[in-house]
Protein: CpXC domain-containing protein
Amino acid sequence: MSTEIVKDIVCPQCGESQKYRLYASINAKEHKDLKQSILEETLFDWRCKRCNYFAAMAYPFVYIDNEAGFVVCVAPGGSGSTVEATPPLKAYVKRRVKNLAELKEKILIFDSKLDDVAVELVKNALCTIIRRSYNNVRLHAYFSRIEEEKLEFAIYLPRKPEPVYHSTRIEVYAQSQEVLRTLNYSDPEDFSVVDARLAKRIIEEYQNA
Ligand SMILES: [Zn+2]
Structure:
């Protein structure tokens, strides 16, 4: 079930009040259109019908995919969320993200039937290598797809709107799974953040083991 809320929004540019439809929860299978707008990162887009003013109206919501078995709590700007890991969600993979880009990545990872913790380890290894070829700039990498035994990542460089793509062999993913097995890594019961910082902690733990 998806939960829809209609809110009155006052346009910050022309002051016109109008309705804005937002969602407390989005069910992947019921709302393929909303899933698509997440994948296009346009879900929060809002345009004033009177003056055409454009804004991204970020709000917290929960994305649930019953078939793939995962729930993601989206909390823009680190806003607190009241979502609890209730018993019916026990068997689900539970994640917390900050924005649509991160949610999109989780969807692509889980839809590819991959483990996001292992994918973060792969990403860490890839970024360590490619950062050197980009003069050690701060870069952001997002999983994009798995193809021909390779994991492809979209790499965003500073001040470049379009990403560059880099791939890693599937063996690196298998090695990452092995690292997690060696460490007896188990997913937390609660909604957890699986990101580059977690990958760094896991690798440090592995190296010190
Ligand atoms: Zn307006």
Q: What stands out?
A: The first strand starts at residue 3 and ends at 10. The CA atoms of residues 118 and 177 lie 6 Å apart. The first helix runs from residue 32 to 39. The mean pLDDT is 92.
